[in-house]
Model the fold of this input.
Amino acid sequence: MKHFKLLPIPFLLATALTVAHAETISLPSISVHGASAEEIPYALPTVPAASTDIGALIKRLPGANVNSNGVVTSIAQYRGLFGNRVNVVLDGFSQHEAGPNSMDSPLSYLPASRTDHVSVFRGIAPVRTGIETIGGTISANSKKLDFGQAEEAELHGTANAAYASNGNTRQLNLTTAITNQHHRLQLTGSSDRGDNQSFDGGRVRSSEHDRDTVGLHYGYQDSSKAIGLDVEHFDMGDTGTAALPMDILYFRGENIKGSFTNYLNNGDDYTIKLHHQDVEHEMDNFSHRSNGLIASRARQVFAEVQGEGLGLHYQHQNWLFGIDLDQAEHNATIYNPNNAAFFIENFKDAERDRYSLFAEWKGAVSSGWNVETGLRYSRVEMDSGDASLGGTPAPLVVLNTDFNNSDLSQDEDLVDIFATFTHEISQQADIEIGFARKTRAPSYQERYLWAPLQSTGGLADGRQYVGDINLDHEVSYQLELGLDWHTQKFAISPRVFYHHINDYIQGVAGNANAQQQMVANAIATMLGGTPSTLLKFSNVDAKLYGIDANWSAALSSDWQLAGTVSYVRGERRDTSDDLYRIAPLNAITSLTYVQPSWQVSVEAETVARQNKISSENNEQKTGGYALFNISSQYHVTPAVTMMAGVNNLFDRYYVSHLDGINRAGGNPDLAMGDKIPGFGRSAYVNVNVDF
Done:
């Protein structure tokens, strides 16, 4: 099992001429005369292929990546920032997580078979895209059938079925709607199933997945208004997360979303948006794992989230004004099913409420220069109920008492400012300069994790953490330099960035007190682990810098070459350590041969080794690798499309730096504490029918 070392960029480009890939995407449209080379946001329309997880699509966006803790547990990363630093928006709405370890990351709520496209606001995200956009904004939109063209009702739909050999993975989706020119009533359902995934050398135990969704969507439109109402049910069943201490038994709940837009006679318009979410979750460490647990080490967790959101945006000429409200309450309780007296409320009525208003202006400021600028003020109010526990060691009772006696009500005032200047230097080239001040308040895990546990929002490093009620909010000063160069046959859009972050929040060794460390050691021993240094969420100083680019070239009327390349470096400014779980240099290069009714695409995904790691987190180095894939697409009829291909064509063994370590015992192919390998070769077929 050999690892590649650093693969330089020239090799990445040359390799695309001779090797192959797994997933075909449509490139962004290119404007040749007097406009940027890419749409804003940069989007990838797609049809579903081998993976059920849209994290595989996010990785194709320049600068973007995912931290994977399971087959459908992908946590978005953008330019080294991940978790709730990245504003992930699904169909225009934010999604709260019920799992304290991000098992139900926002990306998991939208299956690939239901996805229309994913997109990123490259570089500095405008303040209109959401509250707390310190790590940018990534959005994913589901398939929505169009309104009809006449008064008479019409029935339309799309059906999709896919199978992949690795893990016996199956996808099904049906979207159908009755429409006319004013009304649209849509019913959508999806089902994803998969067994344990394999790699060159064995299987990843606890990597199965089971997910169903169903949604009812109503829309109305006329010349003066548009109305939307979505009711969706999400049901994730037995699903493995080998990188986390437990596996999913279920996530189950509803999302209700509504919107109303009114177009006024003077050209102004306003939009009102409402959102309600209610999700319950259960997980444990014994149903899917052969850990050889004794009865006292069995653990079961019940968690839930309830959230509401309200948005009011008003558009007037070059101005956009908005008010956004967002509230969420989290609960999580740990049990031992073999000991009725034992329980720990690690989060009890943990509230995180956000009240925000913003203004943006966009227009020309001088000859050839345009600016987009905005200001957002947000008030983040956090609080927690008094946590309780039973049947636990006395030192844990001391920590619980200290927590309950603390001032749990904490408020943060956040101010975000941005300005992006663009200038057309020729008909083929534009430059972009951006500046921003972006902020983020602590998450509820970072602030209210009072017991030394691994409920860390998906860090998946096997370490125990404790929160800090008195954390300060993060402040990032951001600089962006970009170029869009576009001709009729070639386009490239590189971006250079620098982020100077004060009070960056991460786990720090040595900041926990002796009582917390003693309890952490006791918990680790009780669960059959080895005591290690406890990490406490703390404020440090950091910086991130790098470059990312997307490009495409028309080699002829039939051949197209395209790709992305992304590099980010994350460092502590207060110590000599590196930041944790930062994506290494990586590139995707594809070569596509296109005919009117079919196409074949080959791709190389090349990733450099990562040796810039966090010693504070005992992070492991990872080697570089190259994966080769091949895919094809054939339009049988205008309504029927078939896709087939092979992922990881040569069944390469590799380890992704952003994937977690194995926490599931009883696997003869993978030891506890080892990095989880990437998945091996997988042939797939996909059929899509429009009607």
